[in-house]
């Protein structure tokens, strides 16, 4: 009897497609030999963090670049190398990776760093999840940092999502202001908004944005190389020859986004597996592209209220039915009113719709520009959808309250195709 004979037949124990799917997970940190084309950026991050190896204060650093250009990968990878180098000299370096999209208040950022760094046996303190004011969380953070580390590296991803820059001011000057005495803190701020430092107060800017680093998008060849280095996520012979080049080409269409490339490849494998295919083909890749885009858009709008979805639907219809790409608030508002009536929603004021458009701009769902120059505010802003309208529509219609729009949409399409009832 083989070892597998007594296993529960309800489950699968072999995976015909993936040898190690974790290599394609977004949280996976690939080793240095799998990192492609970022030597210069790695060196710059290493230069900024170098003092930490000897227990001294690292330089703060800002990293900019579009989605999927390796900003968090390089920050985490170099930080980990700093930690292991420092350990050789008995220097303790710890790091906290904070997603400011999820933790955007001063108290939650401070609490999270303190919880990551703290070892109650060494510091003699605890960092409770709730119940302390911001000031007390700071006190515990300084204690934890002083007792448990020589250097703390704080990586703030999506730093532009922070409610205000107070936390940056205090963290960046902790040593200078003698909040901590036996230890130091280095900050790496990551953002895809290159104009982010313009929004910081002068004091924070002067202490933080001395060192800036820009990550440019990958070209299709680099994306091919990145994917080739993860080919062992699949069993030998599973990927058809055209899968990696096609995935790279599709991911390079907007800008060279490695996150999208890896997501498409993983989804292609999953789709093949679901269909009981043992080879991943170009067709799986095309389906995977659509799924990846829909998933990503869904993630962006998941928490949005139904009114915001109705407004986005209005912008989607306008985009679909016109050769224009940008629309003024007023035009979107008129279309929204129509949709709100169809859905039996209360009709919001134009001012409120304008605010919601602004929020969606902040969430990177749409892009708003004021007429003339600068980021969009106010009644004269124009708004553009950042995703393919057919994907947006599909995702918005997943919301049951918006589903009636699907019938209206189908009827419109029939009419415009001339297949509606003839007189
Ligand atoms: N140069 C590279 N070599 C190998 N893999 C890479 C490279 N750049 C990015 N990746 C992979 O692409 C994915 C996205 O990278 P990462 O999260 O670092 O991008 P990012 O610029 O921080 O994006 P975002 O702004 O969306 O957070 C990760 O799975 C990462 O491992």
TrEMBL record:
SMART domains per the UniProt record, alphabetical: AAA, Cdc6_C
Pfam families given in the database record: AAA_22 (PF13401), Cdc6_lid (PF22703), WHD_Cdc6 (PF09079)
InterPro entries to which the protein is assigned, alphabetical: AAA+_ATPase (IPR003593), AAA_22 (IPR049945), Cdc6_C (IPR015163), Cdc6_lid (IPR055237), ORC1/CDC6 (IPR050311), Orc1/Cdc6_arc (IPR014277), P-loop_NTPase (IPR027417), WH-like_DNA-bd_sf (IPR036388)
UniProt binding sites for ATP: 69-73, 218, 230
Molecular function (Gene Ontology), one example: ATP binding
Gene Ontology biological-process entries: cell division; DNA replication
CDD domains from the UniProt entry: AAA, Cdc6_C
Function according to Swiss-Prot or TrEMBL: Involved in regulation of DNA replication.
PANTHER family: CELL DIVISION CONTROL PROTEIN 6-RELATED, ORC1-TYPE DNA REPLICATION PROTEIN
Protein name: ORC1-type DNA replication protein
């Amino acid at each position: 009897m083989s070892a597998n004979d007594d296993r529960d037949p309800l489950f699968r124990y072999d995976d015909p497609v993936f040898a190690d799917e974790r290599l394609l997970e977004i949280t996976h940190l690939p080793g240095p030999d799998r990192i492609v084309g970022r030597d210069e950026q790695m060196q710059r991050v290493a230069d900024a963090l170098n003092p930490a190896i000897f227990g001294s204060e690292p330089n703060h650093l800002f990293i900019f670049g579009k989605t999927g250009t390796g900003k968090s990968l390089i920050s985490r990878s170099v930080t980990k190398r700093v930690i292991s180098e420092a350990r050789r000299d008995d220097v303790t370096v710890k790091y906290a990776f904070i997603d400011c999209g999820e933790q955007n208040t001063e108290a939650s950022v401070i609490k999270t760093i303190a919880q990551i760094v703290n070892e109650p046996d060494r510091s003699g303190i605890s960092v409770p999840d709730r119940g302390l004011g911001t000031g007390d969380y700071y006190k515990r953070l300084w204690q934890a940092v002083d007792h448990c580390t020589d250097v703390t590296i704080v990586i703030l991803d999506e730093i532009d999502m922070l409610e205000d820059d107070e936390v940056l001011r205090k963290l960046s000057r902790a040593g200078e202001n003698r909040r901590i005495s036996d230890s130091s803190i280095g900050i790496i701020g990551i953002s895809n908004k290159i104009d982010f430092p313009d929004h910081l107060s002068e004091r924070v800017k002067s202490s933080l944005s001395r060192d800036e680093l820009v990550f440019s998008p990958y070209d299709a060849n680099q994306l091919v190389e990145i994917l080739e280095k993860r080919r062992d996520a699949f069993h030998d012979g599973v990927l058809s020859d055209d899968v990696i080049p096609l995935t790279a080409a599709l991911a390079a269409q907007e800008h060279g986004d490695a996150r999208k490339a890896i997501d498409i490849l993983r989804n292609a494998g999953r789709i093949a597996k679901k269909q009981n295919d043992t080879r991943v083909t170009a067709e799986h890749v095309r389906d995977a592209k659509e799924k990846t885009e829909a998933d990503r858009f869904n993630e962006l709008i998941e928490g949005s209220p139904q009114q915001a979805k109705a407004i986005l639907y209005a912008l989607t219809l306008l985009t679909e039915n016109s050769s224009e790409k940008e629309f003024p608030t007023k035009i979107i508002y008129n279309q929204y009113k129509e949709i709100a009536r169809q859905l039996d929603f209360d009709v919001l004021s134009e001012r409120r719709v304008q605010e919601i458009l602004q929020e969606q701009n902040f969430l990177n769902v749409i892009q708003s520009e004021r007429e003339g120059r600068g980021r969009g505010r106010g009644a004269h802003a124009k708004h553009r959808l950042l995703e393919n309208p057919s994907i947006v529509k599909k995702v918005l219609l997943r919301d049951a309250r918006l589903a009636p729009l699907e019938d209206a949409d189908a009827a419109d399409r029939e009419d415009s195709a001339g297949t509606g009832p003839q007189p």
